């Protein structure tokens, strides 16, 4: 399931904004995005990402004492267990810190940054879908041209092609070595 189509506009309550922030941050994480696009978690990689979004939301709601380090450990563990990806850069820590910052903002009733992230996500999604539709249009046009060319070719008569040139080199003449009167072979310089 494509998470771009499943994310809905944010509601007005803090929990919904936090859930949206978690989903946006995880969908923007390059390591997870690559793992999902490459199906490193199997054919249900997208579902695993969606499950991770829900699991993090539940963890933050059920255990309010969760900090960025706890969340980073969970992200690293899930990437390793579910996608067979070892995260050895700082990206898991950055993602965890970003999610915890959004949690703090929603606790204070500040939703502006999440709203901006949501709008950026929507614009990026629209650009991707318009680029994909342009590709489909160009691809369809190319197929039409190929069909026309094939029809044109079938109407033409066969053209007599001459014999193909030989790709095999003619053997070189072997130069017999000169032997002097003492029985020694003469050494000649190459030209």
From TrEMBL:
Segments for region (Disordered): 129-191
Domain of life: Eukaryota
Keyword Isomerase applies: no
InterPro entries associated with the record: Pre-rRNA_process_TSR2 (IPR019398)
Pfam families recorded: WGG (PF10273)
Protein name (Swiss-Prot/TrEMBL): Pre-rRNA processing protein
Composition bias type Acidic residues, residue spans: 141-161
Keywords per UniProt: rRNA processing
Organism the protein comes from: Penicillium cataractarum
Family: Belongs to the TSR2 family.
GO biological process: rRNA processing
């Amino acid at each position: 399931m494509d998470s771009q189509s499943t994310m809905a506009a944010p509601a007005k309550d803090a929990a919904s904004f936090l859930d949206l922030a978690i989903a946006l941050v995880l969908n923007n994480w390059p390591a997870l995005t690559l793992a999902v696009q490459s199906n490193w978690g199997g054919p249900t990689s997208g579902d695993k990402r969606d499950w991770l979004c829900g699991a993090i939301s539940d963890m933050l709601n059920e255990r309010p004492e969760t900090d960025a380090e706890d969340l980073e450990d969970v992200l690293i563990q899930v990437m390793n267990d579910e996608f067979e990806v070892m995260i050895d850069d700082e990206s898991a820590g950055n993602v965890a810190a970003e999610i915890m910052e959004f949690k703090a903002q929603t606790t204070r009733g500040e939703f502006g940054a999440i709203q901006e992230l949501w709008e950026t996500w929507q614009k990026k999604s629209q650009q991707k879908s318009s680029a994909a539709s342009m590709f489909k249009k160009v691809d369809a046009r190319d197929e039409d041209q190929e069909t026309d060319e094939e029809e044109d070719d079938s109407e033409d008569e066969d053209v007599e092609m001459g014999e193909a040139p030989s790709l095999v080199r003619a053997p070189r003449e072997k130069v017999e070595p000169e032997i002097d009167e003492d029985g020694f072979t003469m050494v000649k310089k190459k030209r």
